[in-house]
Amino acid sequence: MVPQLHQKPPFRAEHLGSLLRPKKLLDVKIAYEKGEVPEADLKAVEDKEITDVVATQKKLGYSAISDGEYRRHMFWGTFFPGLEGFEEITDFEVDIFRKYAPDISAFLEAGHKPGETVICTGKIKHVGSTYIDQFKYLTTQVPPNEVKNLKITLAAPNWYHFRYVEGKAYPKSVYSSDEEYFADIARAYQVELKILYDAGCRNVQFDDPNLAYFCSEKFLTGFKEDKLNLYTADDLFEKYIKLYNDIFTGLPVDLHVGVHLCRGNFVGSRHFSEGGYDRIAVKLFRELNAHTYYLEYDNERSGGFEPLKHLPPHKNVILGVVTSKFAALEDKEEMKKRVIKAAEFIAEGNGVPLETALNQVGVSPQCGFASHREGNAIDWDGMINKLKLVREIADDIWPNQP
């Protein structure tokens, strides 16, 4: 059977899930962590602010509404700490990390030890969703017929493998190989996706900067020089694609799954790596069984649109041509030209008319506005203006489409 293009979701105008937290929410979160207010007070504020930010997204004309990740500290949430077999640790030696991994390298170069981390200590098993309550509350904020559009973001399945040097991601007494380890990770995600699906979820976005790090020459050089590695960076990239494909095996046909690739999005609008998608495009677009790719394309850091020639006709790409890192507004007409240019490469690669290629395309900010709860170097009005701009670009290119 010929694969079909999955749409609505994704939509012509998208955002990447995380939105700036209001000061009241941040203040109460900090007070709760200090033991100054009860959990009930924190939840009440989270509920109110999520209700308000959902209303904001509706007003701006977005269909793939998120909760802004307002209940999370970081974009990846609590999936891994919630699994049996993982333990969150704060006391560790930096030698457990690949020091050339872009985010780890950035911390160390700045003289900082990476913060808390999560490490495998035993057999991995899903023992209860830490996302389901977030999703269920979000469903109360929209009519029943719009629940299918709601977006929930999930941690990359390779998150606590990529960052560790060979031999430190899991005990050899527990897993004899990456294949065994990844098999249990895949099973855990399949359970999570079923729980979310049964609650009405039909729109999932995996946030995975690690895949984009394979575009970084600095990372690739470090990986090649690391004598502990048992295989090449290309081999590891292929293992991660297989991990995703194992997770996606047997998905319901109406469950949309997308993967977001960026090059880091930390406090103060910090990015961690650079490099175009060229060296990973063929495997990423043709072998990873996602419906949609949310790609960073806001500046030269991300390279050109040429790799989009490899995007198959049954897959979507959401072009992150508007930066979420700074408030200065892009020129709308210039961004429209960029979207058309990207679609021309898709058309060339598939031998189809430009109009057909444009049907595979949408626009968004290049990343979230608050991957870390403190957020980027942009204020609330700046974020709203960016979201308005994305919606206007989409309306001009695809009139009357959500």
UniProtKB/TrEMBL annotation:
<dbReference type="InterPro" id="IPR002629">
    <property type="entry name" value="Met_Synth_C/arc"/>
</dbReference>
<dbReference type="GO" id="GO:0003871">
    <property type="term" value="F:5-methyltetrahydropteroyltriglutamate-homocysteine S-methyltransferase activity"/>
</dbReference>
<dbReference type="GO" id="GO:0009086">
    <property type="term" value="P:methionine biosynthetic process"/>
</dbReference>
<protein>
    <recommendedName>
        <fullName>Cobalamin-independent methionine synthase MetE C-terminal/archaeal domain-containing protein</fullName>
    </recommendedName>
</protein>
<dbReference type="GO" id="GO:0008270">
    <property type="term" value="F:zinc ion binding"/>
</dbReference>
<feature type="domain" description="Cobalamin-independent methionine synthase MetE C-terminal/archaeal">
    <location>
        <begin position="179"/>
        <end position="377"/>
    </location>
</feature>
<dbReference type="InterPro" id="IPR038071">
    <property type="entry name" value="UROD/MetE-like_sf"/>
</dbReference>
<dbReference type="Pfam" id="PF01717">
    <property type="entry name" value="Meth_synt_2"/>
</dbReference>
